Amino acid sequence: MCGVAGWDYKDWWGPVYPTVRPRGFDPLSYLSRFFDTIEINSSFYGVGSPKASQGWVRRVQENQRFKFTAKLWQRFTHQRETPWSLDDVEQVRASLAPLADGDRLGCVLAQFSWSFKRTSENEEWLGDVLRAFEQFPLSVEVRHSSWNQPAFYSSLTERGVGVVNIDQPVFQNSIKPEARVTAGVGYVRLHGRNYENWFRDQAESHEWGRGGYLFTRRSVFSPLEEVMMRLLPRDEEFFDLFEQVAQKCHEAAGHLKELFSGKAEKWAYSIEAIKRLEHECDNITHEVVNRLDRTFITPIDREDIHLLASDLDDVIDRIDGTARRVQIFKLTEAPAPGVIELTDVIHRITAVITEAVGKLRNDHQAVISHSIKAKQLEEEGDALYQDILARLFETEKDAIQLIKWKEIYDNLEHTIDQAEDVANDLESIALKHA
Q1: 343, 360, 361, 366: which is closest to 419 by C-alpha?
Q2: Which one of 190, 215, 231 terminates a domain?
Q3: Most Cβ neighbours (<10 Å): which of 8, 156, 241, 395?
Q4: Which helix (H) or strand (E) holds 189?
């Protein structure tokens, strides 16, 4: 959503509204035809009445998408010499209730000045304010760079409170433009870059004050597009789908291990279970591809999603291929030496892959660590494959059996290699987004 701050300005008549006010003309209703949100300024200077809020809801009713954001009364953000009272809180809650009840409240903006630095006292003040109004969606704007710390942003995330990304004149200790999201609401405010009047007393006129700045297309639209693209909601279900495929790969690897560890008469159960899991993974992979076609903003690069989905699917295809060869070759005797050891490596490497995929959403360092473990397991499997292949040619005298078991060995080794490809995909994604 894109909008403006306030709607009642004398210097907007002509540039924004008709020069001569038509009979019955309502600036708020007029703006709601072009914007999906407007920031309420008057709520900062004093507590409005519930009746006024009810009127605002009625005046934007033609725009079903419309949401207000309301600045929190300055008693809670700027007038900090004395504590606020419970009565102050109740007045504000009552004034905002009609907006919330009418599903027209996007969030309440707690806007603090540059002088509000990160001290223990101010952290306590901020925490008390957020608790007092936790019934509403909240966003916090701070301007001093002392707040620009991971712990602060993490605390907002834990509370479900948004952080405001501000474009303002950048001085020595001011917050620089960012593109952060700590809650379900992403908020960008364009203050302008009027360095000359930013700290000037009485600098509130729209013609020459703090807001008196004309953005050029080059100075704002390219950076703003980048910020907004990062703030747009992303379809997180891709992570869920990847986790499902990885878990099914590990489950199939467990059945493969049981297949060669158990008696031949029980192989049919494991083969059937693997086939079922392979079919389920195919369906999930198709859902990933279809969702990719329907999704505008993805959590990771589109090509990475497609590559990871394809490589994960190839792992279980390899496992299923080994199980089907057991059936096609009509193997009834005990497995050749080393098969159980190779299937154990596959079981362990798919477990590591499953853990790595589970961390892909929010712990990229853990993904990298698990990817390294997977590569170490691939090296273990490669050495084991070469050793047992040499033993097979040394001990197996039946040429037909040798051909069958060599193909089994080859497919098991290819499965491990395919799992390493998945580890490489995950590591690349993690490094790209760390």
Answers
A1: 343
A2: 231
A3: 156
A4: strand 187-190
Backbone angles phi, psi at 336, to 5 degrees: -65, 160
Spatial contact of 271 and 323, defined as CB atoms under 8 Å apart = yes
What do you get for the CA distance between the two ends of the chain, in Å?
28
Nearest Cα to 47, choosing from 75, 69, 28, 67?
A: 75
Helix (H, G, I), strand (E, B) or coil at 32: coil
Which residue matches tokens 């948004």? 162
CATH number, domain with residue 341: 1.20.58.220
- Tell me which H or E stretch contains 399: helix 399-433
Distance of CA 378 to the CA centre of its chain: 31
Question: Which residues fall within 8 angstroms of residue 164, CB to CB, at 6 or more apart?
Answer: 109, 111, 139, 140, 141, 187, 188, 189
pLDDT tens by residue, 183-216:
877 788 876 665 565 555 554 544 445 555 565 5
For the entire predicted model, the pTM comes to 0.53
Query: Measuring CA to CA, which residue among 217, 203, 107, 210 is closest to residue 164?
Result: 107
Q: Which residues contact 273 (CB under 8 A, 6 or more apart)?
A: 252, 255
Phi, psi of 164 (to 5 degrees): -90, 130
Tally of structural domains, the chain: 2
Q: Tell me: the pLDDT tens digits for 345-379?
A: 999 999 999 999 999 988 999 999 999 999 999 99
Which residues touch 137 (CB under 8 Å, ≥6 apart)? 105, 106, 107, 108, 162, 183, 184, 185
Beta strand pairing status for 138-141 and 187-190? Answer: unpaired
- Are residues 262 and 388 both part of a single domain? yes
DSSP assignment letter at 233: -
The C-alpha atoms of residue 373 and residue 382 are separated, in whole angstroms, by 14
| Maximum C-alpha span of the chain | 102
